[in-house]
Amino acid sequence: MVSSKYFFYNNPFHASDNNIERLKLFFCLWILMLLPTCVEPGLGEDDHWDGVVVTESDFLALQGFKQELVDPKGFLRSWNDSGYGACSGSWIGIKCAMGQVIVIQLPWKGFSGQISERIGQLQELRKLSLHDNQISGSIPSSLGLLPNLRGVQLFNNKLSGSIPPSLGYCPLLQSLDLSNNLLTGTIPDSIANSTRLYWLNLSFNSFSGPIPATLTHSVSLTFLDFHHNNLSGSIPNTWGGGSVKSGFFRLQSLILDHNLFTGNIPASLGSLSELKEISLSHNQFSGAIPNEIGTLSRLQILDFSSNALSGKLPSTLSNLSSLTLLNVGNNHLNNQIQEALGRLHYLSVLILSRNQFSGHIPASIGNISNLMQLDLSLNNLSGEIPISFDTQHSLNIFNISYNNLSGPVPTLLANKFNSTSFVGNIQLCGYSLSTPCPSPAPSFGVIASPPKLSQQHHRRILSTKDIILIAAGALLIVLITLCCILLICLIRKRATSKASNDQVSRRTGKGVPPVVGVGEVEEGSGEAGGKLVHFDGPLAFTADDLLCATAEIMGKSTYGTVYKATLEDGSQVAVKRFREKITKSEREFESEVSVLGKFRHPNLLALRAFYLGPKGEKLLVFDYMPKGSLASFLHVRGSETAIDWATRMRIAQGVARGMFYLHSQENIIHGHLTSNNILLDENTNAKIADFGLSRLMTTAANSNIIATAGAASGYRAPELLKLKKANNKSDIYSLGLILLELLTGKSPNESINDVELPQWVASVVKEEWTNEVFDVELMKDASTIGDELLNTLKLALHCVDPSPSARPDIQQVLQQLQEIRPVLSSQDKITSSSTIFA
Ligand SMILES: *[C@@H]1O[C@H](CO)[C@@H](O)[C@H](O)[C@H]1NC(C)=O
Ligand SMILES: *[C@@H]1O[C@H](CO)[C@@H](O)[C@H](O)[C@H]1NC(C)=O
Ligand SMILES: *[C@@H]1O[C@H](CO)[C@@H](O)[C@H](O)[C@H]1NC(C)=O
Ligand SMILES: *[C@@H]1O[C@H](CO)[C@@H](O)[C@H](O)[C@H]1NC(C)=O
Ligand SMILES: *[C@@H]1O[C@H](CO)[C@@H](O)[C@H](O)[C@H]1NC(C)=O
Ligand SMILES: *[C@@H]1O[C@H](CO)[C@@H](O)[C@H](O)[C@H]1NC(C)=O
Ligand SMILES: *[C@@H]1O[C@H](CO)[C@@H](O)[C@H](O)[C@H]1NC(C)=O
Ligand SMILES: *[C@@H]1O[C@H](CO)[C@@H](O)[C@H](O)[C@H]1NC(C)=O
Ligand SMILES: *[C@@H]1O[C@H](CO)[C@@H](O)[C@H](O)[C@H]1NC(C)=O
Ligand SMILES: *[C@@H]1O[C@H](CO)[C@@H](O)[C@H](O)[C@H]1NC(C)=O
């Protein structure tokens, strides 16, 4: 039934058995195995290509499987014929290859009953997903008979008994999630037998006994979650192979809270260089926090609360520059809190409560700009609250109660938090009506102030000092301003003389060799004639400034040449110089370009000025984008610089917002959207360039450009071969290709085995190996973003539909992208709130 030539290209059952093929398979099922959402009909899942009749043995096994389950809602009624439908897609939850079952996927079906041991007969089974049912009984030990088993998702059921050690016989096991069941017994050593295991979640059960030391040697394990069990003993100090540096360890999450662990926190944890989250809270760990924790440079979450830890906070903790949460509350830690914690700029939660910390509250904590929650209650801190807290606006949970603090509470804190945040500090004042601070002395004339008032007196002297400082500062500012004015005058004078010098030197052939002047070719330009028109923006230069700027060629296109021009004052702009005879007449050009110059949107490259030279040369001046184009950002970089999904999605949404503005607000067709003319600013925000240029061209030039799209051909909608005129839907096609480019990391201009990118993606998806299309870099986070990848892929394929009418419009694209990943980063918020519509 599938006769396409792509069929064998990625057919995993094809004879070739090299490593690459295996690596592909490894990635293949990552998402499918991890995500409950893959259960919804995914991309291309309607197309079941495997029409082969199910094998007798698999048919009998499925029958046995059905018999032992209780199916109150009748989902398995579709398993009714004598096996013909099993592999043709009419049996719910089954996928086959060559007549053998490879996937059983039946979550949220209300099943009870048990999982039959006959499951072990399904020799090709890769994935067993029955999570979120009411299934009881034990985990079949026959799972160990399945050499291809990769994923087992049985979480949120009522399974009891223990984990069958035979699971260690599945050499390809990648993901095992048995969380939230009623499982007991110890965790078998063999569980770490698979060298592919990267996801192990046994949380919310009643497992007891120790952590198998074998797990601490695993080089594949990435997520380990054992929280809420009854595990005990100490944690082996052999993480990362003990002291031996024996490989690359991938562990990112180590979650062991709410167990009965004892002993010290092992120092070898410091060798887990990828660790992002560690939670050991609610156990009985004792001893000091090892200094080695400070080497975990990627750590974002550190929770050691509610143990019996003692000693001081290691000074190395202030090296954890990515940390957002630090909770060591409810331990026996003592000594001072180090000032250096203020270096943790990303910290948003800091909990040190219920310890024996003494000394002062470090002023630097008041300087952490992201801090939202600070709990220092129930310690032995003394001294005043640092005034740096008077600028601490981000806090919304604050507690310093039950310490030995004194003096006035900074106004900001006193206004924001009620007295339960401050009580239990006998000498603290000013945080409620019943704790007024001693009133300040009425005048400067107080000579013999009582001891209690010494505090206030001190403060008043300080404020006198402040006044002097402010006066001095004001004077300084006046002086500096004067200096600046003088300086600017001087520079202006020198600049004009230098500019004329430059022009002279170029004419005499003594210019700067590696660069050329934008206006160089045309003699006599500059003050001699020509017209420069500015649109709104921060740049102020004259025609002469522009023509005398040093310029490097950045690229050439069908429209002309683009230069990076550096003006005399050091500012940089991008200048587009049109090829001769392709633009409209001067008058038409001017009126069209004036329209384009009014467009202002955070995701459009702003046109700042245009210049019409006396001999008909035409220049457009744009903001210069230091990060270059999306194409080079994606395809020209070292293998060590990964681009994460969040960044790619932000770019995709930016492009969609820009296109939305063009299509719906300005009624403009881009006509030429490629990753080469999506530029990136210093914060990697997408800026669409080259929009509306067709309005400046003659009709002949335009159809010529469409026909000879050259390097951009990969982005050209198929109908343009005949139509010759771009429209909204052909823009959407190009946008779809950019989405595919972001997802796959492949350029539409390089065909894959003679197949174009959209066809390649569609063919892979059709064979249900969807995950193979994604950029390998993105698969690292497949567990969390898999859903978003799939939905974005679905949208992208919708956009590149061969039939223009089937493609969505830009509003739908934007809306769907925002639904797929609604969280805006703070950067996005800033740009979208500063949107300027002309
Ligand atoms: C089997 O079930 C499907 C779906 O429930 C139904 O369409 C079909 O007619 C049934 N076939 C038989 C032989 O009962
Ligand atoms: C671990 O796997 C190997 C084969 O990969 C097998 O020989 C061995 O018995 C397994 N160990 C356990 C404890 O299951
Ligand atoms: C493990 O499973 C539990 C319960 O199903 C869930 O809350 C937790 O987030 C999972 N752990 C990880 C690391 O995803
Ligand atoms: C741990 O074991 C104790 C008895 O030893 C039991 O009361 C408790 O419920 C168990 N906790 C969990 C989470 O299984
Ligand atoms: C970590 O912190 C310690 C003590 O504060 C310091 O000596 C060391 O240089 C730091 N290491 C790095 C890599 O910053
Ligand atoms: C806190 O920030 C202010 C202003 O940025 C700075 O003057 C002060 O030195 C900082 N204090 C500490 C302790 O880092
Ligand atoms: C609290 O700190 C003071 C010194 O500031 C010390 O004398 C006292 O013993 C400490 N109290 C406790 C309970 O640690
Ligand atoms: C409170 O701090 C003062 C010094 O500021 C110290 O003399 C006193 O002992 C402390 N009180 C307690 C109960 O720790
Ligand atoms: C004080 O604030 C806390 C939370 O900030 C709130 O839960 C509590 O009800 C407040 N108490 C009073 C007496 O207002
Ligand atoms: C502050 O901590 C104390 C002691 O744990 C507690 O009683 C109080 O409710 C807390 N206040 C707030 C606002 O959380």
TrEMBL record:
Gene Ontology MF terms in the entry: ATP binding; protein serine/threonine kinase activity
Cellular location(s): Membrane
Keywords from the UniProt entry: Leucine-rich repeat, Membrane, Repeat, Signal, Transmembrane, Transmembrane helix
SUPFAM superfamilies linked to this entry: L domain-like (SSF52058), Protein kinase-like (PK-like) (SSF56112)
A single GO cellular-component term on record: membrane
UniProt feature coiled coil, ranges: none
Keyword Ribonucleoprotein annotated: no
Alphabetical list of InterPro entries matching this protein: Kinase-like_dom_sf, Leu-rich_rpt, Leu-rich_rpt_typical-subtyp, LRR_dom_sf, LRR_N_plant-typ, LRR_R13L4/SHOC2-like, Prot_kinase_dom, Ser-Thr/Tyr_kinase_cat_dom
Domain Protein kinase: 548-824
Topology term for the membrane: Single-pass membrane protein
Gene3D superfamilies noted in UniProt: Phosphorylase Kinase, domain 1 (3.30.200.20), Ribonuclease Inhibitor (3.80.10.10), Transferase(Phosphotransferase) domain 1 (1.10.510.10)
Major localisation: membrane
UniProt key word Transmembrane helix: yes
CDD domains from the UniProt entry: STKc_IRAK
Pfam families: LRR_1, LRR_14, LRR_8, LRRNT_2, PK_Tyr_Ser-Thr
Protein name: Protein kinase domain-containing protein
